Amino acid sequence: MRGPVVLVLVTLTCFATAQHQALIDYLERRLLAIEDRISLWHEQTARYASELRALKQQMVSQLENLDKEKETLRMNLDGVGTRVDRVERELDYLETQNGAQPCVDVDDKLIEQQVTLVKEKQKAQYSKLSDCSDMISSIKAMKILKRVGGPKGMWTKDTNRGSGKLYIFNGTDEDTIHEFASVQDFSRSLGITLSKNLKLPSAWRGTGHVVFNNYVYYITLAEEIMIVKFDMKNSSVTDSTVFPLQDHVPVYGLTPETVMDLAVDEEGLWAIYATRQNERYISLAKMDATSLDIEQMWDTNCPRENAEAAFVICGTLYVVYNTKQPGRSRVQCVFDVNGMVTNEDAPLIYFPKRYGSHSSLKYNPQEQLLYAWDDGYQILYKLIMKKKLEI
After folding, report:
1. Is 238 a residue whose pLDDT tops 80?
2. pLDDT tens digits for range 345-374
3. Cα–Cα separations (whole angstroms), residue 137 to 206, 341, 383
4. Among candidate residues 221, 376, 373, 382, the one with its CA nearest the CA of residue 308
5. I want to staple 258 with a disulfide (CB 3.0 to 4.6 A). Which of 50, 153, 206, 343 is the partner?
6. 249 vs 12, which has greater pLDDT?
7. How far apart are CA 163 and CA 269, in angstroms?
8. Residue 74: which residues within 8 A CB-CB, separation 6 or more?
9. Rounded to 5 degrees, what angle do the CA atoms 112, 114, 118 make?
């Protein structure tokens, strides 16, 4: 009896072991299948995440481009609206003076009136806004701070008396300003690492920008020259205007990228420009810094040929020319809006030997310093002044 019982027990044990092994094999296969599916899910999730990141970056880039195009379109529309308003005011004036006239007659008279207005602004006696009567006697010292950026650009302080901030405009067709808290921060900064970036709604053209009372005034160019006034506190465009030039040419013969050069002195905001009608010489205009209206215009006797840059001090335009000596420049032409200084009276002013030629010269009336950009080098010139009546 014991032999069959043992056989039965052994048989049952083997059967149970086989079932257990089969169950283990089944569970292992299921686990392997689950692991394969989890691995597949991870791969698909990583791919989807990568595609979503790429889509997000593409959307952000497109939105930035749309914002730029929107701001540019808004500025263009504002400029067109301003010009339409001016034309409407002129038309209303003509109608009140002479009654309704055919459209062609009105247009002809409007053009004649605009030409007459420009001539009057050129002939009118300039009314000084300050008692400043200084002019340059000589250059006392030259200091090279560092070299940042490309061959052409502009750097300046805000001419507001309470501001010590410094601004770098690198290049002639960019839209990002580098702001430093002080000249000391700029001097000890490795490149532009200590700067704060200020992005403009559109790219500037040339090197003729200024920073005045917390506003950036810069030039853009499409078919016409536009002056844009940008509020740095609010990061928004406060105003813009189309400068009334039908045929403009670069203002300096040696800096063709600069179609207009803005300047600030004790009297306020100035525009230095040139027209095809008088293309051999440089012209000057006094502007209202608040409204961007033109207050008065002058045709000077300062040639464009060989001119590098210019600046204004106390209503006197100083034009800097490249000499035959390498790395040497001098003030070779001056124009005083009050007629107190002539080329014959002005002293000879030579700039110390440098690296190349000035792409910009910006005067700071608070410090009596010139901020110069020379082949990527940022240079300061300390000026010695004298009274115009002491000539």
Report:
1. yes
2. 777 889 886 677 899 999 999 999 999 999
3. 29, 12, 8
4. 373
5. 206
6. 249
7. 18
8. 237
9. 115
